Each structure stands twice: as structure tokens, then as C-alpha cells.
Amino acid sequence: MTDIPRPRRSALYLPASNAKALDKARTLACDVVILDLEDAVAPEAKEAARGQAVEAVKAGGFGRRELVIRTNGLDTPWGAEDLAAVALAGPDAILVPKVSSGADVAAYDAAIEKAPATTKLWAMIETCAALFALDEIAKAAKTTRMTTWVMGTNDLAKEMRCRQTADRAPFWGPLSLSVAAARGAGLTILDGVYNDIENIEGLVNVCEQGVDFGFDGKTLIHPKQVEPCNLVFSPAPGEVDWARAVIAAFALPENAGKGAIRVEGRMAELLHLAQAERLVAVSEAIAEAQAA
Asked: Can you tell me the distance from the alpha carbon of 212 to that of 221, in angstroms, rounded to the nearest whole number?
């Protein structure tokens, strides 16, 4: 079984220009706080937002929450200074936009070379070009500090000129391929945002779809989205019970060396054992995080 990453069910974007939002982030139930310097911040507020994000990292107080800063791109007037300042601050991760090639990953990795080794690189997958370079981008993880992808479905919809339908049909191919490429490289991958803040039922539906696709969690744009997202991306009690039964059955002496056994009337193979071990580990990690 591979190492189990920390829970990343809910990753909440907050504008780094909003001091009240930064304070509130320390009290929310999200697994990840993403302080945004990019889309959520007006050009005239970029420099001030950068300073507030750096100060938030230094001040700490985010507890178990993973603290990530999304910078502006290297192709913007603010990107290079963002990356230099944020790297020295040393958040848990730095999220960079519009990664479309392995060369982009390498460039961002070089730009944050002065960051502590504990600071990871996260990449936004949000361009049409990226969809045709997923394998190349994923392989860049071998030589960089990149560990995580985040789907940018709003930007992707803009480039594709597609409609964001309730079932997200235009994204089925991109989402599925992105998950497969991320898994092939051992990366964590988070689903894109849901824009209709007041439609919690719709949010739950797309969260469930995200689980079906295989995402580790979802990015969010409002605190009220955190609780339903956490619920959907947490293993259901019945799933955990079944997983524990599979683990216990394979541990029985009479099942030693067997590749397939019968558990509560269902067939379970060794691949199901690996899945069960991961599910239980994820469930335990979530319980530990919530108790912290």
C-alpha cells in the first residue's frame, strides 16, 4: 500500500487581500486553505495581498489545515515577485496557474528553489494545451517538488468555449484523463470549483461525481460549501466496515497465500485488499485530523 496523504477533501480559496477572510480561515473545517493572489485579487491590490499572505504564513494559527498560496503566473507582472516572496515564507505548498507543459513545471520549480524542502509545488490544470500534455506534466514530478494537481474548470471552460452543464458532460474526458495521469505519477488531484454558492444540492451532486471520478477532494469558493464537501469525500461507514472485513479475512491463517477469497458472500481479490487498506487508512487520517 502506498503512503496515505493527509486529508484534502475540501480546499477553500480565500482572497489574500481580505484580512477578515484570513482570520476566519483559521476557524473553518476545511482541510486546505488556499490564499489566492491570482483570480480573486484585483490588479491594484496584488502587492498588498502578497504581503498579507506572507504575514499569514508567518503568523500561523491554521492548526491542522494545510496552508497553500496561489500565486500569479510567471507571464504576469506580479508572478516572479509573488513566487520569490512566497517561497521565502514557506507555506505548505505553492499553487501555480495555467501549467501546460513539463517545462512550465520546471520553471516554477526553479522559481521557488529557496523555499524550504517542506514546501511543495501544486499545479493548476486549466488549459487546453495541458490536456494534451498530461503525461509530460505528470512525469515532471520525478525531478521537481510537484505533488498535487488542481483542476481549473472555469478557465478550462473559457478556453474550450463549452457550457458548464449540471452533469459536467463537456468535462468528462478532461477530468477522467487528468485523474488517470495524476494517479500514474502518484500525484494527489483535486476537482474544480462549483460556482452556484447557494445550490448545496448541486454541490453535493458534483462532489459525488468527483468521488466517482477518483478525485481526492474538491476546491471551494465559499465556507458554506465546506461541510457538505467534507461529508461526501469522507468514506461512508458501510464502506469502512466492508474494508475492515476484507482486511480481517485476508489476515486469517486459512487464507494465507490466496489471491481471492469469499467475504460476506462477495468475492475479494488481493487488489480489493489493497483498496481496503487504503480506505481504512484514509478514514483514520480524517478522524485524526478532525480530533486535532
From this structure: 21
